[in-house]
Amino acid sequence: MNTVVRNEKYWLMAAGYIGAIFLWYASVKWLPISSFNRLPDPLSVIREWLSPDPSYGISIFTSDYYVHIWYSTYRAFTAFFLAVLLGVPLGIFMGWNAKFREFSGALVGLLRPIPPLAWVPLAILLFPGVEPAVIFVTFLVAFFATTMNTLVGVRSIDEDYFRAARCLGASRTDILRDVIVPGALPHIFTGLQIAMGAAWFSLVAGEMIAAQYGLGYVIWEAYNLIQYPTIVIGMATLGIVGFLSSAAIRWVGQRLMQWREESLGLGG
Amino acid sequence: MEQVMKRDRGSNNSEGLAPRPEFGKLSIRNAGKTYDPQGSAVVAVHDCSIEIEAGDFVAIVGPSGCGKSTLMNVLAGFDNVTSGEVYLDDSLLASPRQAPSPGADRVVVFQNGALFPWKTVLENVTYGLLKTNAMSRASAEEKAKDFLSRCGGLDKVMRSYPAQLSSGMQRRVEIVRALVNEPRILLLDEPFRAMDTISKTTMHQHLLKMYSTCRRTIVFITHDLEEAIYLSDKVIVMTTRPGTVKLELTVPLPRPRTPEMTASVEYMDLKKEAIESVHEEAKKAFERGERELA
User: Fold this and answer.
1) Do residues A31 and A88 both lie within one domain?
2) Of B103, B120, B163, which has the smallest distance from its Cβ to A169's Cβ?
3) In terms of domains, do A117 and A245 share one?
4) A125-144: pLDDT as tens digits
5) What DSSP string describes A146-186?
6) How high is the pLDDT of residue B112?
7) How many distinct structural domains can be found in chain A?
8) How confident is the model at residue A268 (pLDDT cuts 50, 70, 90)?
9) Nearest residue in B to A173, CA atom
10) Would you place residue B9 in the very low, low, confident or very high pLDDT band (cuts 50, 70, 90)?
11) Nearest chain A Cα distance for residue B260, angstroms
């Protein structure tokens, strides 16, 4: 029964991919719209992507491809880890201390809705060089997502857990370690997933505007140089890298929250 | 009645019941609590006096809004009184000048359950021992295992997380988590409220067994009269707001208590007396609610 369901799941996933690629092929090849027809079809993209001697300089056999991936990954993860390092403690502190929450809450509420791209000029003026500016812009969105979700996580912990811990003789630091952190962890990890997605999102935007390397740069550059297959290669690579980074966070979260896994009946 | 009561007092050494503990005598003297959040004083508890001997099982019954929870919060150390005093073993626990603080000598079992879901059963049960006593992890685990196994073989699930257990088992583990600290008072805040009748009956047997082997002073808050009479030595009926003691019923049923006792004449008489008393208060509370809504 279980294997049947699982097999069906994989078939459906494969069908989804095949359907999407077919739609792509059909709209480029057969749709009577000229703007669609000048885009590369799936086959030429794959041919370029896997070519040892790509027409536009980027394929899985060129070192440039990996340099770009490395730059983007490095920026996304630096921004992400900075966001976690600052956002999680800040969120916990905001959840823990009502005065501090009121003090900082209004400010965060106002800064958070500013789209990351709006920060780009300021970031370039503020930081020496493009690299820290791009990382800063990427960091900002990830930071807000992490902080807000951590705060929600702390606030959603049932008051009885605090009381139970105090009854059993826990000190304030015990409560922080034994109640607040584990209790907020599910929300924190939701926040980290969102933060990772948001980091890639604003990273690419930042790279398009202000970088010399990276997948966002590749996409924008390929557009300017009319190297259409390379645009799609850049996009697909972003999809893969983004998916892998989310999967990594999910994996870590599941390791840390086995109690939850098992309670939901998902564990072995 | 006096005769019967004496027999009950003498039944401390009746079959299976552990001797009275040395500590756990509770004395609530003219305690009152007035909340004043928006300038309009709300008297939650008024001039409430209750004496509880060490090792007694006392149930506090009353309609919602009778100040049961307020009283519980004061005893647990989450809240203070605004008049009167509370003594635990002749030392002052709470007075308007002395705010109580929670401690492992008065452990609460919460209405909705508060086992830490991120800790295993064993980690939950040893938590208090490790936080309060200078007990090593090994001896704390030893003690926890001993208590768990004595309470219906719960040591079999000590590596599980709470969510993997049935709600009845979770309740029992939570009671063990409290008992293992050998508190002076065990505070049970409507612990079986959300349970169906059959699970409740099973839980009653488990609780009575735990009480007879690890005897502690128990303050059991409930709105279920039958459970109150069946379990306790003394039932205290509280009035509707402002909450105060309306009736104190001594339960002369011998221990160990068995479900058949709920059909005895003694039980029925007590129930009748208590029902009349509670019903009056419930009616008052209801009518006031109607008035307040109107």
Assistant:
1) no
2) B103
3) yes
4) 998 888 898 899 999 999 99
5) HHHHHHHHHHTS-HHHHHHHHHTT--HHHHIIIIIHHHHHH
6) 87
7) 2
8) very low
9) B131
10) very low
11) 35
Q: A259: which chain B residues are within 8 Å (Cβ-Cβ)? A: 117-120, 161-163
Same domain, A8 and A72: no
Domain extent for A201: 46-263
pLDDT band at B195 (very low <50, low <70, confident <90, very high): confident
pLDDT at residue number A266: 43
A195-216 residue pLDDT tens: 999 999 889 888 988 778 999 9
Instruction: Choose the closest CB to A168 out of B101, B127, B164.
Output: B127
**Any idea what the CATH number is for the domain that residue A205 is in?**
1.10.3720.10
Residue B179: closest C-alpha in chain A: A168
* B114–A178 CB contact, under 8 Å: no
SS3 label, residue B149: helix
Question: Tell me: domain B2-105+226-293, CATH 3.40.50.300, correct?
Answer: yes
Residue of B108, B116, B159 to mutate when probing chain A, most A C-beta within 10 A: B116
Between the CA of residue A201 and those of A36, A77, A134, A191, what are the distances in Å? 25, 13, 12, 15
Confidence of residue B6 (pLDDT cuts 50, 70, 90): very low
- Cβ of B116 within 8 Å of Cβ of A182? The answer is yes
Residues A22 and A87 in one domain: no
Question: In terms of CA atoms, which chain B residue is nearest residue A162?
Answer: B114
CA A104 to chain centre: 25
Strands B185-189 and B217-222: parallel
Q: Assess whether the previous peptide bond of B242 is cis (omega < 30° from 0).
A: yes
pLDDT value at residue A261: 63
Residue B102 C-alpha, separation from nearest chain A C-alpha, in angstroms: 5
Secondary structure of residue B220 in the 3-state scheme: strand
Q: Which residues of B touch A185 (CB under 8 A)?
A: 118
* Nearest residue, CB atoms, B131 vs list A163, A168, A183: A168
ipTM for the assembly? 0.86
B33 part of contact set with chain A, CB < 8 Å = no
Ramachandran quadrant class, A157 (left: phi over 0; alpha: psi -120 to 50; beta: rest): beta
Residues 6+ away with beta carbon under 8 Å from B282: B63, B240
Q: Same domain for A23 and A95?
A: no
- pLDDT at residue B5, rounded to an integer: 41
- A183 neighbourhood in chain B, CB within 8 Å: 118
